[in-house]
Amino acid sequence: MIRILLADDQRLVRAGIRGILDDEADLHVVAEASDGRAAVAMCRELRPDVVLMDIRMPGMDGLEAARRITADEHLAAVRVVMLTTFDLDEYVYGALRFGATGFLVKDTEPAELLHAVRVAARGDALISPSITRRLIAEFADRPDHVRPPDQRLDALTDREREVMRLIAAGHTNGEIAARLVVSPLTAKTHVSRIMAKLGARDRSQVVVMAYEYRMVSPGWLTD
Question: Rounded distance, CA 168 to CA 158, Å?
């Protein structure tokens, strides 16, 4: 059973999403929060598998709440998916930098919402949709988002750098394995080592870092 926390200041939005989720046998909404502060407190108390978090809420917004959740080592297993009205939203980019698993536009289709929750619960990043990669490319390409050299990158092998670029292009472990002609287990090991060396919470942070350190450019994006 995937346990979900809904955080949105609009009651009708929460009710609509809850109705979709609770109709599924493997999904269960354990609580609802109307602001970021309550969402953080409920996360610490209930330890849900996935948080669906509105990015703009009164008081503590979703960005700050996501930052606090992803920074809490006791909540390392909690996956945060941001909800937004606009697909190209710099607040979403900031949340991905903090370690949010991905984002959904609020008018997404129910099937896509259900798929996203299940993907997030597995620990996979929601980086496959072209819209997510476009968001990262849009904001990471700005001069003020370019990071100075980082010694952690020096610890990566040439193969790990190649795998990191493929992660940034939205490829799954299986697709990476096929491209590099290695086993899926080997690809998964490479990904795990990259995340450990970079101190990344999940694949989304690896993607953001790949763009900010100019390891990839928008030309890598594929649908």
Answer: 15
**Cα distance between residue 216 and residue 198, in whole Å:** 16
Contact call for residues 160 and 190 (beta carbons, < 8 A):
yes
Q: In the chain, which stretches have pLDDT less than 70? A: 87-89, 125-133, 136-137, 140-141, 143-148, 217-223
Please give the structure tokens belonging to residue 42: 């409920």
Whether the model clears a pTM of 0.85, i.e. scores above it, the answer is no
CB 204 within 8 A of CB 127: yes
**Rounded Cα–Cα distance for residues 71 and 65 (Å):** 10
Give the tens place of pLDDT for each residue, 36-76: 999 999 999 999 999 999 998 989 999 999 999 999 989 98
Q: Residue-wise over 51-70: b if at least 16 C-beta within 10 A, else e? A: bbbbbbbeebbbbbbbbbbb
